[in-house]
Design goal:
- This protein has helices spanning about 60-70, 90, 95-100, 110-120, 125-135, 140-150, 230-240, 260-280, 285-295, 300-320; strands spanning about 20, 25-30, 35-45, 50, 80, 105-110, 165, 175, 180-185, 190-195, 200-205, 245-250, 325-330, 335-340.
- It is of the alpha/beta class.
- It is globular, with a radius of gyration of 21 Å.
- The strands form three sheets. A seven-stranded mixed beta sheet has the order 1-2-3-4-5-6-7. Strands 8-9-10-11-12 form a five-stranded mixed beta sheet. Strands 13-14 form a two-stranded antiparallel sheet.
- Bound molecules: zinc ion.
- Zinc ion binds next to loops.
Length: about 350
């Protein structure tokens, strides 16, 4: 297959349920910035429904859920919430929905505790983060700007419930007598869960495989020497072992059939970006100098922040592989140059 082959079903309106497979339904919740929506999937069990991802903690999304509760779930209730990962568009309303129905949240351990650790975090011991940005070549005060930029976003995910059920690749979920295998991925978030049902030949891919965009793979100040790009590229491999015609239900964009084609395209895009980094580093360069050589379009402040994280992810992969040499300049900035050895 050499195109994505989207399904014929038009995307649902916000808060409207449409069926995409037997016992599998699709709706959308609003997101106030591109890609403007998140897909939410509902899995029908014998005695209730599982929600997969929730949308952000926005007043409009709460109203949509309340409308859906009475429109669709009065006879057969919601019996659990499954969150693919910790990002606010995926579990922003997990607390709201689990409280409303008094049901449990399913999440991997890595995602649940990563999210919990940032709930109400107030520590301002930030010299490490300031140093991270300085070493990337960012101007003074960048750390402060990032903090200010993210402050209003913190409310877009409600603190998670105090108790959860652990999702693991060792233990498939059984819903309506069908097994849903958990496929763990890394790189975009700590322990991302995709759900695969062989009986339905269907994959709920979360953010791991998206049809039009690539999920952000970032090195952040919390773990500046990490190599999430390698983690992500390795995490794509299991999807190539699934049947080629698997119907993929992504978290953003429309469901599509050509899973292998899309995974190969993601691998090729990252490979191209890794090449751009290597070309840029014929001469010593800082991360800040490399950004425009990889991301050539104009970047909004939030896109610039994400581009910095992803540029560092590309750099760290090359550095860890020994392709780039890294050293600290007199100004305290890391410079990267192709390793001649
Ligand atoms: Zn995400």
């Amino acid at each position: 297959m050499n195109d994505l082959q989207y399904i014929d079903i038009p995307a649902p309106e916000l808060g409207q349920l449409v069926q995409v497979a037997e016992n599998v339904y699709w709706t959308r919740m609003p997101v106030p910035f591109p890609p403007k929506h998140i897909n939410v999937y509902l899995l029908e069990d014998d005695d209730g429904w599982f929600v997969v991802d929730t949308g952000m903690n926005l007043p409009q999304a709460r109203l949509l859920w309340q409308k859906m509760f009475s429109e669709y779930f009065e006879d057969k209730p919601i019996k659990g919430v499954i969150a693919t990962h910790m990002h606010m568009d995926h579990c922003g309303l997990a607390n709201f929905i689990t409280n409303h129905w008094r049901v449990r949240l399913w999440m991997t351990q890595g995602e649940y505790f990563s999210a919990r650790s940032s709930d109400g975090a107030t520590s301002d011991n930030s010299w490490q983060l300031e140093q991270h940005y300085a070493r990337a070549g960012m101007p003074e005060g960048f750390h402060h700007k990032v903090k200010q930029g993210f402050a209003p976003m913190e409310k877009l995910r409600e603190p998670l419930p105090l108790s959860y059920e652990r999702l693991s690749d060792q233990k498939p979920l059984v819903i309506h007598n069908r097994q849903w295998q958990v496929i763990i991925g890394h790189g975009h978030s700590p322990e991302h869960a995709s759900l695969y049902c062989r009986d339905l030949n269907l994959l709920i891919s979360g953010d791991q495989v998206l049809p039009r965009i690539s999920p952000n793979i970032s090195v952040t100040g919390e773990n500046p020497n990490d190599d999430p790009m390698t983690d992500y590229l390795e995490s794509l491999q299991p999807f190539l072992s699934l049947p080629e015609k698997t119907l993929t239900l992504p978290a953003h964009g429309d469901p599509f059939h050509a899973l292998h084609f899309r995974v190969q395209a993601l691998l090729a895009d990252h490979d191209e970006n890794l090449q751009k980094v290597m070309t840029a580093c014929k001469q010593p360069q800082s991360a800040q100098q490399i950004i425009p050589q990889v991301f050539r379009r104009e970047l909004s402040p939030i896109d610039y922040y994400l581009a910095l994280g992803e540029t560092l992810a590309l750099i760290n992969r090359c550095w860890r592989l020994g392709q780039l040499h890294r050293y600290l300049s007199d100004r305290g900035v890391y410079l990267y140059v192709q390793n001649q050895a």
